[in-house]
From TrEMBL:
Cell location: Cell membrane
Protein name: Protease PrsW
InterPro entries named in the record: Peptidase_PrsW_arch/bac, PrsW
Keywords in alphabetical order: Cell membrane, Hydrolase, Membrane, Protease, Transmembrane, Transmembrane helix
The family this protein is said to belong to: Belongs to the protease PrsW family.
Amino acid sequence: MELIVYALAPVAIVILYIYLKDKYEKEPKRLLLISFLLGAIVSIIITTILYGVFDLALPLTNSLSVWQQFVQAFFVVGFSEELSKYLIVLLFAQRHKAFNEPFDGIVYAVMVSMGFAATENIFYVMESGPSTALLRAFTAIPAHATFAILMGYFMGKAKFSSNRIILNLTGLCLAILFHGAYDFFLFIDFIPGIWVGAFISLFIALILSRKAIKKHQEISYFNIEEE
């Protein structure tokens, strides 16, 4: 039980942070919970299926080739995980009437992503212990959050734009890009010091995420002022 608390604590902190950043019109807690559960269950299932498909076509796991690890990071892990989250936001949250301002894209994308991260983190922490929980609290969990914020920023814009398809896919591709970059530098750990690239990519994603949150907050504020 203690390990589960360690695994879920950073997820709860991210959720609370985003919830408080949604200053002008809070989303229904029921929809937030459903989004979280869809991420925790459905997203994991979709990802597992996609992993299986890729594993049949591209059995890469044990390879040390830089190119193969690149494919693994971007086209297997990054694509599979972010697509699974994207589909839930696209097919469930974005269609809901409560999704009525651009910032909602960030809120729902983060909720789905934190659901995914919660399930994933429980498995890792139960297997490897408190030290893994501490490490992932400052790496994997913030990484999942930033990928979601970047995706949600564009999906929030898409809801109220005539270029919905382009903006939605932009959000997906940006999440895959940063997720892939983060994992790629960790996968090629046989190159000394290359892991630093993962934290550089995470740092850039964090900066962009803060800007995305601020920009959508400003849009929400001006919309309220106009009303």
